[in-house]
């Protein structure tokens, strides 16, 4: 759920965390207990979450855990909330493509963005006799 409040954007969603363990008698992985957490994101993180995540996406959340207890209709209820600092896709379960959000315009006139020179990533050749030969690094394959 996304809301644009006076204090800034806010997003809330629930995640389920199920532990898995190896059942040595059956020699197979078994699902354990499932815990549910409510995740709260504020400001720019909330805006990015709404634009990036879909229901069922495996995610990793970093933040502060808050456990609350209350009495509802005579029953004790305990809930666990996460005040998120960072949220991302769990890349052990799939791939993701990162995109920076557009920057809001400041001022009344739209100006062209400042062009920065491209960095020089070339490694200068080593002097013969003074330095050890350089090896080229091959990019890591993403599978």
TrEMBL record:
InterPro entries: NA-bd_OB-fold, Primosome_PriB/ssb, ssDNA-bd. One of its GO terms (molecular function) is DNA binding. Gene3D superfamilies: Nucleic acid-binding proteins. Pfam families: SSB. Residues 93-143 are annotated as: Disordered. Keywords: DNA-binding. Residues 106-118 have a biased composition (Polar residues). It comes from the Bacteria. This is Single-stranded DNA-binding protein.
């Amino acid at each position: 759920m996304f809301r644009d409040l006076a204090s800034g954007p806010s997003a809330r969603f629930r995640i389920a965390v199920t532990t898995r363990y190896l059942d040595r008698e059956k020699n197979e992985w078994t699902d354990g207990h499932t815990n549910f957490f409510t995740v709260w994101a504020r400001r720019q993180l909330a805006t990015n979450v709404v634009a990036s995540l879909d229901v069922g996406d495996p995610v990793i959340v970093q933040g502060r855990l808050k456990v609350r207890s209350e009495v509802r209709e005579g029953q004790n209820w305990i809930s666990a909330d996460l005040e998120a600092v960072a949220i991302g896709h769990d890349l052990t379960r799939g791939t993701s493509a990162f995109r920076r959000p557009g920057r809001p315009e400041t001022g009344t006139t739209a100006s062209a963005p400042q062009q920065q020179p491209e960095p020089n990533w070339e490694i200068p050749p080593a002097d013969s006799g003074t330095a050890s030969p350089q090896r080229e690094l091959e990019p890591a394959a993403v599978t």
